[in-house]
Amino acid sequence: MTATLERRESASLWGRFCDWITSTENRLYIGWFGVLMIPTLLTATSVFIIAFVAAPPVDIDGIREPVSGSLLYGNNIISGAIVPTSAAIGLHFYPIWEAASVDEWLYNGGPAHSLHGPLLRGAVELSFAPSLALLFAEQFSLASSFFFSFFHSIHFPPHQ
């Protein structure tokens, strides 16, 4: 029996990365959707955990009476929440660079708003697996409702 060894051309770093991502011989198949899904869901999960534990009180209805939902402000696992704000139309997408300060962003429910983008993208990526689509149905509907209401408030402003 004769064994022949073929010398493989040295592929570029990008070529090796593409081969590794799309290889079905890996123990865990990542694929191109996984390249987007894994970082976005890790971002959403870390923001959720940090906000659930340490987010400051939020002005939920615009009357300057903040509502706290995090564990550090006296809530337990059952009563804890990440409190969004509905004080103003157009705050449904509230990036940190639009606020005058980080305190203002936190007071207006910034952590809740920073969850919607990664959750929406991650849920869309996970929806390609039929068994996982049910797990993220609630998060997907929550995130998409915030985006739809944001775009609705841009295109259809309230009448005075």
Automatic annotation (TrEMBL):
GO terms for biological process: photosynthetic electron transport in photosystem II. It is a multi-pass membrane protein. It is found in: Membrane. One of its GO terms (molecular function) is oxidoreductase activity. InterPro entries: D1/D2 (IPR055266), Photo_II_D1/D2_sf (IPR036854), Photo_RC_L/M (IPR000484). Pfam families: Photo_RC. One of its GO terms (cellular component) is chloroplast thylakoid membrane. The chain crosses the membrane at residues 29-55, 76-97. The keyword Transport applies. Keywords: Acetylation, Chlorophyll, Chromophore, Electron transport, Iron, Magnesium, Membrane, Metal-binding, Oxidoreductase, Phosphoprotein, Photosynthesis, Photosystem II, Transmembrane, Transmembrane helix, Transport. Belongs to the reaction center PufL/M/PsbA/D family. This is Photosystem II protein D1. It comes from Ceratopteris richardii.
